[in-house]
Design brief:
mainly alpha
Length: 73
């Protein structure tokens, strides 16, 4: 496997597809806090413009560690 390959749970190539993927996974989420966060994310995606979505940067989470936010802010 190449080092530059990034694995994602959801297809984030398109705003609408991402919102649909997140919504489709909600019935399988047992953690109510996580489900609420996902619902809020779907609402934000639905209200967001295509231009704003195209400016988002998706960064894979590090396993078992907090993300290194230094340099991202």
């Amino acid at each position: 496997m190449e080092d530059d390959v990034q694995w994602c749970i959801f297809n984030h190539s398109d705003r609408k597809v991402l919102a649909e993927d997140i919504s489709a996974s909600l019935p399988y989420i047992d953690d109510q806090d996580m489900a609420e966060l996902m619902k809020q994310t779907v609402l934000l995606l639905e209200e967001m413009s295509e231009e704003d979505f195209s400016e988002l940067v998706f960064v894979p989470a590090e396993e078992e560690d907090e993300p290194d936010w230094e340099g991202l802010i």
